[in-house]
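Subject: Thioesterase domain-containing protein

B.,
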Amino acid sequence: MHISEKEIEIRYAETDQMGIVYHANYLIWLEIGRTKLIEDVGFTYAEMESQGYLSPVTDISIQYKAALRYGQKAIVKTWVEEHGRLRTIYGYEVQHEDGTVAAKATSEHVVVKKDTFRPVSLKKIYPAWHEKYEEIKKREGYGVRN
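Prediction pasted inline below.
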């Protein structure tokens, strides 16, 4: 299993009136983490788009555990939780610098043709990408701490 890491400096604009990171900003951070993971394993989402394919989010779930604040740094850990014929589920853990879990999340994606939005198999259009996901996806009993 491969876990990608991306450090995020929390900006003032990302916080709410209570001084904590506004919940919707986590969605942006998950995308940053997912992009980093894809690049870490040798591919780019931009290349997929240039060839007429998209990978929209079909489901997302976030559990908030411990608030992050302006001036702190967040560490976004990202991995392939599941990868099947048509969908990929990414797993995430957003941590404080000391390793305290701030949030856990998953996002589900499918690959579609840009012009029709019809689902296509990653294995069919990018066999090497599919194989890499099969190689790095979460294995039973492995993962980040609970």
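The mean pLDDT is 94.

T.
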